[in-house]
Design brief:
6 helices; 35% helix; globular; alpha/beta; binds 5-O-phosphono-beta-D-ribofuranosylamine; single chain; 8-stranded mixed β-sheet
Length: 194
């Protein structure tokens, strides 16, 4: 099965996903697409021999529909069976989400349903939570709201800054996302907890 991976930045999740798709894994990466020209993940993808594309949202002057229409045409040329959003920092409208309904995953750096949106680690620290983590979910029209397919937890330590916590969670993201993707492609949907 062909997997398109959407990024906006360094693409560390993309790298761990791409590296996991070998041997008898049902998936293979067919495309890495970024909305940001020159995103660090693009070079990493090229170094791994994966096709890359850029669709710069700034070329569409706030016209979300036009941006998404272009995204869809570029992505569909690669005929993906699944879309993995990995640090893709654009909010997508129901048009895009509906086009890939049931085929699109995202990783979010919180224990959903807590802390949707941005600055998740600071929110967890400010709330005095003992734990934080990351979630992989199916993408639906509700931002960070679709069915949760997997979660990984880490302790929050007393002296943690948001950056300390982000680094601890990122290590888990790189384990969780590949573990969820392979199950998703095999049609296994019971939730994974790491
Ligand atoms: C990660 O914290 C991930 O949770 C969020 O984007 C951040 C950067 O991810 N979605 P990556 O290194 O670009 O994969």
């Amino acid at each position: 099965k062909k997997v398109a991976i959407l990024i906006s930045g360094g693409g560390s999740n993309m790298v761990s996903l791409a590296k996991s798709m070998t041997g008898d894994h049902p998936g293979r990466p067919c495309l890495v697409l970024s909305n940001v020209p020159g995103a660090g993940g693009l070079q990493k993808a090229e170094d791994m021999g994966i096709a890359t594309e850029v669709v710069d949202h700034r070329d569409f002057k706030g016209d979300r529909e036009a941006f998404e229409t272009k995204l869809i045409s570029v992505i569909d040329a690669y005929e993906p069976d699944a879309i993995a959003m990995a640090g893709f920092m654009r909010i997508l409208t129901p048009t895009f989400i509906g086009h890939y309904a049931g085929k699109m995953l995202n990783i979010h750096p919180s224990l959903l349903p807590k802390y949707k949106g941005l600055h998740t680690h600071q929110h967890a620290i400010d709330a005095g939570d003992a734990e934080a983590g990351c979630s992989v979910h199916e993408v639906t029209a509700e931002l960070d709201g679709g069915p949760i397919l997997g979660q990984a937890r880490v302790p929050i330590l007393p002296e943690d800054t948001a950056d300390d916590l982000a680094a601890r969670v990122l290590v888990k993201e790189h384990l969780l996302y590949p573990a969820v993707l392979v199950r998703f492609l095999r049609g296994e949907t019971e939730m994974l907890s790491l």
